[in-house]
Amino acid sequence: MMLAELIIILMLGGVIAWLAGKWSTVVSKWIALIAVLIDSIIFILFLAQHPEVLNQLGDKEDWLIDFHRDWIPQIGASFHLALDGLSLIMVALTLFLGVVAVLASWKEIKSRVGFHYFNILWLLAGILGVFLAMDLLLFYFFWEIMLIPMFFLLGIWGYERRKEASLKFFLFTQISGLFMLIAILGLYFVHGLNTGEYTFNYFALLDISISKQLGFWFMCGFLIAFLVKLPAFPFHSWLPDAHTHSPTAGSVILAGLMLKTAAYGLLRFVVPIFPEASQTIAPLMMLLGVAGILYGAKLTYAQDDFKRLIAFSSVSHMGFIVIGIFSFNVLAYQGTVMQMVAHGISTSALFVIAGAIKNRIGTRDMDKMGRFWEQMPGMGGITVVFVMASLGLPGLANFIAEFLVLVGVFQVSILWSVLATTGLIASMIYSLVILQKIFYGESHSKHKLKDFSIREYLIMTCFIVAIFWLGLFPQKVITTVKPVIQKIEQQAQIKFDYVEPKTKR
Amino acid sequence: MLTSESLYLIMPHIVLAITAVVVMLVTAIKRNHTVSFVLSLLGTAIAFASLFIIPNESRKVTTLFIVDGFSTFFLGLIIVTTFFIIVFSHPYFRGRKEVKKGEYYILLLIASLGAIAMANSDHFIAFFLALEVMSLSMYGLLGYLKKSPFAIETAIKYLIMASVSAAILLFGFALIYTHTGTMELSEMANMVEVNKDSIIFLSGMALVIVGVGFKLALVPFHLWTPDVYAGASAPISAFVATISKGSVFAFLIRLFIDLNGDLRSSVWISFAVFSVASMLIGNWLALRQENIKRLLGYSSIAHLGYMIVALLAASQSGVEAVAFYMVAYFINMLAAFGIIGYLSPKEGEMLNIEDYKGLFWKNPWMAILFTGVLLSLAGIPLTAGFLGKFYLLLSGVGSTLWFLVIILVVSSGIGLFYYLRIIVALFSGRKEVAENEALIPGGSSVLAGIVLFGLFVFLLLIGVYPSGLIKIIQTLVTPIL
Question: What is the rounded average pLDDT of the residues A153-165?
Fold first, then answer.
């Protein structure tokens, strides 16, 4: 029941915040904050009651909660939510960034406040649903529900070219999603014809036996949806526009959570359901992943717009997730999950900083910034932390993530891991450019700049604690997801006659 | 033979006919807009209630009509839709002094009488008569606002197209009759010995397809649609989009089911071609439309194309999908034209997408409702349109019609763009600017507002929890197979 509660509280909170926004914007803000906090408290209480969850060592049955109700019995769709280690990590990330997103828009949004918080809360509810749904139709349902609030966040409260950006975002993600829907239906019928039981249940479809060719095409349906959303090179062109013109909260959720839903989908659906087909397509995916890392880094370096820069760096970082997932080994999967969390935190922090600067000087153009350290030492110091995280400094979460991914990939292919490693050097360059252009160099503006306010310091403290904690004690996350990851890896091996990784060429 | 016991089977028809006569008499005695309005509402409500006394089994009423769960389902849909159209019509015509109002309701009632008779017909003659009853009233309805510059053009355009297509249809019926010797659908279904590849039968079918295609506005018989949608008054556009298409579609389903078998060869292929063309061209032409009613017209062409896909699946889930989608489509179109009528000023209508700019700041409720409807038309989750489209895809994939399914997906991707364009317009502009330009909805009334809101709630309800509707469809519609 707890899982459904989490989603329902957010949805209800959204509606109440909207209605309350009619007469008081302050009340609406607080309702939104309280709704997310209640969710977090429920979740933390659950963890406190089940401490074994975080310390399990891999041989235990790994579904912690399972919530199952009829939804459309006539076609075999059910309202089925379940929580395992992987979902748990993602839910924790969602709630954490949810609080941040509400706080980040506290002062920024001035018109239609109620509707804004409605959208944020429904967006979070949709994302939670994606991370929890264990029925493919329900998964698709939540997958699409995420789009609408994001579309509104972008289209109503976005910056200059918000219309184009929101249209582009919606069209890319919706159309790619429809291909996933066809693949889901295909699976449904193949399973139905094989067994006589027509169902969308994830666990039933997991053991589907499917012909090689059909499996490949169905996998492509899923893959299109996830690669566009991730976004992997060459489907990334919607992301920079969406990020650049989105309000801060939108950017935080987009970078921190929505991109992760795609990575989650790859791990949860593509690899376990289509082990053979994903093995077939792995070389291509490796190529796309590495191309994304390097091309993304190159484009990042060329940006003048601060938010656009961070957006392209996301494309680069997501490349690591792609190569991690398609190298099919435990180390790389651990790295992938870490990367999902670490990138979610570090990039969101950078977007909050970008939003703070934009609110102060009214532009995101880095050529108009410079020497900000003198007036805003607090912001400068904090930015250093996240720039370092982004370039992979040991001791911070991103280092662990990228290191694990590279170690994992190395076992499969030396070439790709070497190429991917050069991406780290590139990320060093563009990350330092941020510091140089914004906080050092020549001053280009005569603004009087105020340093971070208490609210902003509060947000940043959360981020810093999280990124250090994950960097120094990553074991918590790794043990939590270990059983899931082992299972996925086994799944990838069972049906497929695994080719021993070539360590020597 | 019409027996007294079968009278109650056609109670809805009788009630609607009596209502039309009563409204006519009342109008003759003393003209009063509100009285005609209330009487019509009352009549449709009673007609709807009388549906519940009809048993859910297949009964023939003379050789002409058949009464079964399938027809009851469509009757319910059509009568409820008529009720809503009447609700929207009252405030819409209230402000338009140039026309007399009583006749409007009479024509509307007769048109919907024709529509429900079509859903019942089991005989070519019955179908043709019902079709003409509906069409003749529609000529009057389309040109009803006779001072409007487009009214007569619209009516004439529809008159020519509809009568030519009716003639073609009739000739097709005649050819089929020559070959089979019967005009009864259920009897045709039992004829195994009939050679369905004979040239006479096939040319008859071809002509019937053309005639039906005109009514459903399938590409390439769609040319009248945008003009008629744009030229008619909003409630009548809703009628053209929903009832007039739904009733013909009901007959088409019956025809398809009764003639099943080796039909799959030629008739099937021609419908597949029309379906693909309608989906692609309908959505394609809608892309650059600035006029919102023309846009909806093209979009309805595409939606009919989607439904044909499920019909071609020729399976149980296909017929269920059509019925489900039909409900979603009716709600969408009804609400869309309802909102257009609701917001339209006393002179003319808000036709351009431009006019809807910043509606969210001027009239947030209507903007939200409209957004919901457009998202449903685009097939986004939480709305009935999504599950409808899902059901269509389900039946398409189930019968492995991969090509049609892919086209459906691609074309609804194209369609997404123009629905989003309207939504973007609704939410664009800045609050301060928008609030200064007052918007006085001329077609608004409390009742219409409630009905629109009710439709919206229903849209979400079906979109989230469709089991109830599916259960109704499975008890009423599925037995026809």
Answer: 86
- The full length of chain A comes to 505
Contact criterion met (CB below 8 Å) for A85 and A480: yes
Residue B108's nearest CA partner among B250, B298, B245, B238 is: B238
Helix, strand, coil fractions of chain B, as percent rounded to 5? 75, 0, 20
Comparing A181-195, A358-372, B435-449, the range with the smallest average pLDDT is B435-449
- Buried b / exposed e over A386-424, threshold 16 CB at 10 Å, is bbbbbbbbeebbbbbbbbbbbbbbbbbbeebbebbeebb
Residue B257: both structure tokens together: 């089911």
Query: Does B26 reach chain A within 8 Å, measured CB to CB?
Result: no
Interchain pair B390, A144: CB under 8 A:
no
A35: Cβ contacts below 8 Å, ≥ 6 apart: A9, A10, A12, A13, A14, A16, A17, A121
pTM: 0.90
B432 Cα to chain A: minimum distance (Å): 10
Q: Cβ distance A7 to A38 under 8 Å?
A: no
Cα–Cα distance between A236 and A352 in angstroms, integer?
22
pLDDT in tens, A345-393: 999 999 999 988 888 888 888 888 878 888 888 888 899 999 998 888 8
* Residues A409/A417, Cβ–Cβ less than 8 Å: yes
* Other Cβ atoms closer than 10 A to A23: 9
pLDDT tens-digit series, residues B246-260:
999 999 998 888 876
| Complete DSSP assignment for A135-185 | BHHHHHHHHHHTHHHHHHHHHHH--TTHHHHHHHHHHHHHHHHHHHHHHHH
Q: Which amino acid, residue A209?
A: S
Q: In this predicted structure, what is the pLDDT of residue A439?
A: 85
Q: Is B460 in the A-facing interface, judged by CB distances under 8 Å?
A: no
Q: Which of A170, A173, A199, A214 to mutate to test the interface with B (most CBs of B within 10 A)?
A: A170
Q: Is residue A139 pLDDT above 80, yes or no?
A: yes
What is the number of alpha carbons within 13 Å of residue B183 lying toward its C-beta? 17
Single out the residue of A261, A275, A272, A268 nearest to residue A227, CA to CA: A261
DSSP one-letter string for A46-96: HHHH-THHHH--S-S----EEEEEEEEGGGTEEEEEEE-HHHHHHHHHHHH
B398 in A contact zone (CB under 8 Å): yes
Q: Are strands B59-61 and A65-72 parallel, antiparallel or unpaired?
A: unpaired
What b/e sequence results for A80-108 when a residue is b if at least 16 CB atoms lie within 10 Å of its CB, and e otherwise? bbbbbbbbbbbbbbbbbbbbbbbbbbbee
**Cα–Cα distance measured from residue A473 to residue B242, given in angstroms and rounded to the nearest whole number:** 62
d(CA A358, CA B467): 49
ipTM: 0.86
pLDDT at A498 (0 to 100): 44
CB-nearest to B424 from A73, A137, A155 is: A155
Q: What is the DSSP letter of A3?
A: H
Q: In chain A, what are the domain boundaries? A: 274-495
Cβ–Cβ contacts within 10 Å for residue B385, how many?
29
The answer to whether the CB atoms of A73 and B467 lie below 8 A apart is: yes
